[in-house]
């Protein structure tokens, strides 16, 4: 039997059949086509509003309460004039709101002899706010100078607790994060799913990170996908950037894409540790908006994805700062009708009706 | 000179109310010389699914033959037609396979899914899908087509109005492009 060159490659992966022909064409002066780029602004941010690390800026000064003399068990140590500290003494008044004061090292040392009820030294707030990762992206896809898609999705799903934003060539970011049956190994999202079935556990962000970086490195930068990968797994929230050649960075806040400088300017000035979820979302939105308005390659709307332990909120089109301003309600009316040369109407076939109980067959 | 300007093409698809329409021009040229004025760029995959292929005509025909082959295999295995979204993923995968030596083709896919919900999408030559809710364009006249469609499109048009809008958009755009023209083929489903 002759070897038929069948369409389905047995092993998957890239096929280089047409390279020779394309090279011949380019030698004849024919330019290669430009690909759809997602020249973008993509950002990521880790928020951890556990108050142990937070300096609550809006903490009101504690009201003046009657001083409680220290117990006479031992005299308080001498306070050197160089250390200027303020010691607050509280009397627990029933019904009063629990105040808290974050004491630094010297103050705690000075108070060590006092018998202070421990609940006064509780952290701010009655429960810890959850930690997580917030990803943001704009929604413009460009083809050279033309906007090809005004509302595309750049935040791709990898696992229920891991999302990835992509910048660079659109096909590369979609393929590398997607579920194409593409290589001997499938793409990362399907690989992660198979791994989840195999281990019976939630995927970890570092797993996705390693899969992505090894794939990109093996193509030596020719697969032009720059990614921001974020997620929350059992070990906590993680945020990484992956460059097209395969290098990665792990940071508390990141920006990528053509609008990255504009977004990073916002982050550098306004990021602090201990943001709450809402503050984080606002900061991310502001950073993306700064990329949208100051970078020509980014535009349209803002997409935000908030990932916390056990929950993911994908806020598609969270902010629409570029609505279509002048819309003619009447629409376009055509004065001259189109001249139709030939009309052919083909009614679509009716489905065949299956009649049960074939009496004819029984005879 | 770009490879897409070798043959010249104009393709556009629009969504209406429970219907879609896909249109192409009819010129086939070799750079500036016209060799055919009735060239077919839109192919039927099954009753509710059409694909238009712009760009280099030879790659368009080869790609069409491959896609028909894959779809027929699918029909034999699954005993039903492919859904438009599935078909779009198939085309995207076939194009991305040739990432480093691509087909010089930009497909426009239009189909009716379940419940007569129209689906349109386009891709660049390496398979980056662009789903749209209103219209998609491809070809040498794409810049004019973007402008014309943006101005003339209205959501939820019925079939008659959709046909009129689409053909007016196509004709006015190809009039401004020397590499496409000679009328148009419109399929309304």
TrEMBL record, chain A:
<dbReference type="InterPro" id="IPR029055">
    <property type="entry name" value="Ntn_hydrolases_N"/>
</dbReference>
<feature type="compositionally biased region" description="Pro residues">
    <location>
        <begin position="57"/>
        <end position="77"/>
    </location>
</feature>
<dbReference type="InterPro" id="IPR023333">
    <property type="entry name" value="Proteasome_suB-type"/>
</dbReference>
<dbReference type="Pfam" id="PF00227">
    <property type="entry name" value="Proteasome"/>
</dbReference>
<dbReference type="InterPro" id="IPR000243">
    <property type="entry name" value="Pept_T1A_subB"/>
</dbReference>
<protein>
    <recommendedName>
        <fullName>proteasome endopeptidase complex</fullName>
        <ecNumber>3.4.25.1</ecNumber>
    </recommendedName>
</protein>
<keyword id="KW-0888">Threonine protease</keyword>
<dbReference type="GO" id="GO:0004298">
    <property type="term" value="F:threonine-type endopeptidase activity"/>
</dbReference>
<dbReference type="GO" id="GO:0005634">
    <property type="term" value="C:nucleus"/>
</dbReference>
<feature type="region of interest" description="Disordered">
    <location>
        <begin position="55"/>
        <end position="77"/>
    </location>
</feature>
<dbReference type="GO" id="GO:0051603">
    <property type="term" value="P:proteolysis involved in protein catabolic process"/>
</dbReference>
<dbReference type="InterPro" id="IPR001353">
    <property type="entry name" value="Proteasome_sua/b"/>
</dbReference>
<dbReference type="GO" id="GO:0005839">
    <property type="term" value="C:proteasome core complex"/>
</dbReference>
<comment type="subunit">
    <text>Component of the 20S core complex of the 26S proteasome. The 26S proteasome is composed of a core protease (CP), known as the 20S proteasome, capped at one or both ends by the 19S regulatory particle (RP/PA700). The 20S proteasome core is composed of 28 subunits that are arranged in four stacked rings, resulting in a barrel-shaped structure. The two end rings are each formed by seven alpha subunits, and the two central rings are each formed by seven beta subunits. The catalytic chamber with the active sites is on the inside of the barrel.</text>
</comment>
<keyword id="KW-0963">Cytoplasm</keyword>
<comment type="function">
    <text>The proteasome is a multicatalytic proteinase complex which is characterized by its ability to cleave peptides with Arg, Phe, Tyr, Leu, and Glu adjacent to the leaving group at neutral or slightly basic pH. The proteasome has an ATP-dependent proteolytic activity.</text>
</comment>
<keyword id="KW-0539">Nucleus</keyword>
<keyword id="KW-0645">Protease</keyword>
<dbReference type="GO" id="GO:0005737">
    <property type="term" value="C:cytoplasm"/>
</dbReference>
<keyword id="KW-0647">Proteasome</keyword>
<keyword id="KW-0378">Hydrolase</keyword>
Automatic annotation (TrEMBL), chain B:
<keyword id="KW-0647">Proteasome</keyword>
<keyword id="KW-0963">Cytoplasm</keyword>
<dbReference type="InterPro" id="IPR033811">
    <property type="entry name" value="Proteasome_beta_3"/>
</dbReference>
<protein>
    <recommendedName>
        <fullName>Proteasome subunit beta</fullName>
    </recommendedName>
</protein>
<dbReference type="InterPro" id="IPR001353">
    <property type="entry name" value="Proteasome_sua/b"/>
</dbReference>
<keyword id="KW-0539">Nucleus</keyword>
<comment type="subunit">
    <text>Component of the proteasome complex.</text>
</comment>
<comment type="function">
    <text>Component of the proteasome, a multicatalytic proteinase complex which is characterized by its ability to cleave peptides with Arg, Phe, Tyr, Leu, and Glu adjacent to the leaving group at neutral or slightly basic pH. The proteasome has an ATP-dependent proteolytic activity.</text>
</comment>
<dbReference type="InterPro" id="IPR029055">
    <property type="entry name" value="Ntn_hydrolases_N"/>
</dbReference>
<comment type="function">
    <text>Non-catalytic component of the proteasome, a multicatalytic proteinase complex which is characterized by its ability to cleave peptides with Arg, Phe, Tyr, Leu, and Glu adjacent to the leaving group at neutral or slightly basic pH. The proteasome has an ATP-dependent proteolytic activity.</text>
</comment>
<dbReference type="GO" id="GO:0005737">
    <property type="term" value="C:cytoplasm"/>
</dbReference>
<dbReference type="GO" id="GO:0043161">
    <property type="term" value="P:proteasome-mediated ubiquitin-dependent protein catabolic process"/>
</dbReference>
<dbReference type="InterPro" id="IPR023333">
    <property type="entry name" value="Proteasome_suB-type"/>
</dbReference>
<dbReference type="GO" id="GO:0005634">
    <property type="term" value="C:nucleus"/>
</dbReference>
<dbReference type="InterPro" id="IPR016050">
    <property type="entry name" value="Proteasome_bsu_CS"/>
</dbReference>
<dbReference type="GO" id="GO:0019774">
    <property type="term" value="C:proteasome core complex, beta-subunit complex"/>
</dbReference>
<comment type="similarity">
    <text>Belongs to the peptidase T1B family.</text>
</comment>
<dbReference type="Pfam" id="PF00227">
    <property type="entry name" value="Proteasome"/>
</dbReference>
């Amino acid at each position: 039997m002759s070897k038929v060159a069948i369409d389905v490659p047995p092993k998957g992966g890239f096929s280089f059949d047409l390279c020779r022909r394309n090279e011949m064409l380019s030698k004849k002066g024919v330019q290669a086509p430009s690909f759809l780029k997602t020249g973008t602004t993509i950002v990521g941010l880790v928020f951890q509003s556990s108050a142990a690390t937070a300096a609550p800026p809006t903490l009101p000064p504690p009201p003046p309460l009657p001083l409680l003399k220290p117990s006479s068990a031992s005299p308080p140590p001498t306070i050197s004039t160089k250390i200027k500290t303020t010691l607050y003494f509280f009397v627990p008044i029933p019904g009063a709101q629990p105040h808290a004061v974050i004491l630094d090292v010297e103050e705690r040392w000075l108070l060590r002899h006092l018998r202070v009820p421990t609940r006064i030294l509780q952290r701010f707030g009655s429960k810890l706010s959850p930690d997580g990762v917030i990803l943001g992206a704009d929604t413009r896809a460009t083809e050279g100078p033309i906007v090809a898609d005004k509302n595309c999705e750049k935040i791709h799903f990898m696992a229920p607790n891991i999302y990835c934003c992509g910048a660079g060539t659109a096909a590369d970011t979609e393929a590398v994060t997607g579920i194409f049956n593409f290589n001997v190994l499938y793409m990362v999202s399907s690989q992660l799913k198979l791994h989840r079935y195999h281990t019976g556990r939630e995927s970890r962000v570092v797993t996705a990170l390693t899969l992505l970086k090894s794939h990109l490195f093996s193509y030596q930068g020719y697969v032009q996908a720059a990614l921001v990968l974020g997620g929350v797994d059992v070990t906590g929230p993680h945020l990484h950037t992956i460059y097209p050649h395969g290098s990665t960075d792990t940071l508390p806040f990141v920006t990528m894409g053509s609008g990255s400088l504009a977004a990073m300017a916002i982050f550098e000035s306004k990021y602090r540790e201990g943001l709450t979820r809402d503050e984080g979302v606002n900061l991310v939105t502001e950073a993306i908006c700064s990329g949208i308005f100051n970078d020509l390659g980014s535009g349209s709307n803002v997409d935000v994805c908030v990932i916390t332990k056990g929950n993911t909120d994908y806020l598609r089109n969270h902010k629409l700062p570029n609505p279509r301003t002048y819309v003619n309600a009447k629409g376009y009316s055509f004065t001259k009708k189109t001249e139709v040369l030939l009309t052919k109407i083909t009614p679509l076939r009716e489905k065949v009706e299956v009649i049960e109980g074939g009496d004819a067959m029984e005879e | 000179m770009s490879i897409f300007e070798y043959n010249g093409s104009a393709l556009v698809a629009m969504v209406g109310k429970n219907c879609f329409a896909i249109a192409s021009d009819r010129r086939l040229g070799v750079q500036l010389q016209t060799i055919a004025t009735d060239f077919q760029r839109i192919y039927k995959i099954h009753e509710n699914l059409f694909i238009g292929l712009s760009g280099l005509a030879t790659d368009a025909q080869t790609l069409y033959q491959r896609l028909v082959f894959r779809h027929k295999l699918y029909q034999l295995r699954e005993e039903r037609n492919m859904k438009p979204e599935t078909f779009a993923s198939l085309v995207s995968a076939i194009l991305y396979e040739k990432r480093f030596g691509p087909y010089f083709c930009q497909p426009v896919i239009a189909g009716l899914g379940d419940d007569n919900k129209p689906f349109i999408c386009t891709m660049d030559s390496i398979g980056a899908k662009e789903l749209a809710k209103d219209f998609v364009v491809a070809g040498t006249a794409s810049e004019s087509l973007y402008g014309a469609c943006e101005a003339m499109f209205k959501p939820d048009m019925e079939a008659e109005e959709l046909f009129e809008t689409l053909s007016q958009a196509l004709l006015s755009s190809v009039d401004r492009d020397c590499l496409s023209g000679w009328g148009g083929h419109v399929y309304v489903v």
